[in-house]
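User: I'm new to structure prediction. If I give you an amino acid sequence, what do you actually give back? Let's try with this one:
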Amino acid sequence: MKRTTRPIDRRRFLQGSLAGAAWLASGAAAPGLVGAVEQSVASQPRKVSANDKLNIACVGVGGRGADDINGLMETGAVNIVALCDCDSRRAADTYEKFPDARRFRDWRKMFDELKDYDAVMCATPDHNHAIVSVHAMQLGKHVYCEKPLAHSIWEARRMAQVAAEKGVATQMGTQGHAYEGTRRAVEIVRSGAIGEVKELHCWTDRPAGMWPQGVRRPTETPPVPPGLDWDVWLGPAPQRPYNPVYVPFKWRGFWDFGTGGIGDMGIHNLDTAFWALELTAPTSVQVRDCSPGYDDPAFKDTCPAWCIIDMQFPARGEKPPVKMTWYDGGKVPPTDLFQGEKIPEHDGGSLVIGSKGTLFTRTWHGGESADDMFVLLPRKQFKDYQAPPKTLPRVRSHHQEWVDACRGNGKPLSNFGYASVLTESLLLGNVALRTGGKKIEWDAKAMKAVGCPEADQFVKPEFRQGWTL
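Assistant: Good question. You get back a string of structure tokens that encode the predicted 3D arrangement of the chain. For your 469 residues, that looks like this:
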């Protein structure tokens, strides 16, 4: 029997618009909010003492979600009380690992029925991040959500808004944000070691054959395999027939579900520079080049096979404007910028070019140490360089940082306030691609592409009936 979508109007998320972007970085409430927030029973977070274990319900528990659960368990401070996945095939190993946890196929049913839990881990495909996370926060639950924070700019802002209103602890899954190498690099850039920064390059090799991009939409309509609830998997995305080209994991290059290489690895690879330079949303974004044939309507369903995008970030006080160039699909910055250093073959990195030197981030993970993650160029100039005193807090792990915050100790540094601005900035690159490569003049306060009304549908997409955010 075909399952019909159960509307969530009883706890409908009221639409709102936000004025400004700077408020996001601090997590403060935005001025000019349109619409009141619906209050639900027991919608305030339960106070968890430093000695209590955190009860966590998990949505999306295969693949990346399974890794996040492992990271949470390593803290020694959590109980996994519920597991929710619309694909039991993908979730089988995790189900076996936690036999006492309640199991659900539909996160709405889990939120309706589950009692006595404190927090939610969300590791669904991109298009379900916001609807799951906002619903959880409206119930007063702390939320850890995988990157990119959201599928669209409006969703990212909505998530930051609700997090601030509800006072919950939030964290986006940029694991590298907690590494020693990342925090050391941020301190070095902010100390002035590489001088004034006006130029930035960031790149990834993705999709690198991991998922399809620059392809036509499939026309075959095979039956939905046992164990997969296709309606729940689609969530707020437009209705379309199931096809194995989308699941598992291969959805990332399709616009209705994913955000391409810029959402997958841009979030990781830009994080260090974005944080160090205290960037805000760009003022303009323009596609410089992309794979041939991308303007063919037959290929409008997916990201291009590769692209190069220029972004202009505004001045921040006395700090000058910064021009960033993004590269994916195997494209990289001009080789002379690497000053003889080997260009990473996988994942990608960034070049933060200052008036006195360059910070070259070679990976977002590596061995997690400063030596593995970045190098200062030219090497000869920085041979005897002494790093500045540590000013950022150090944590045991990214997951530990969030768990501690849920128990009232500190605030995650990759919280939804910060993460929403980083996500918005990169997703503007996708808006530029989807409007046919038009230059996007971005009015962050109005959340509008000036003189480009066709961009509106990509800034705030239309959600499928019954799944309104």
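You can read the tokens as a compact description of the fold. Here is one thing that stands out. The two ends are 27 Å apart (CA to CA).
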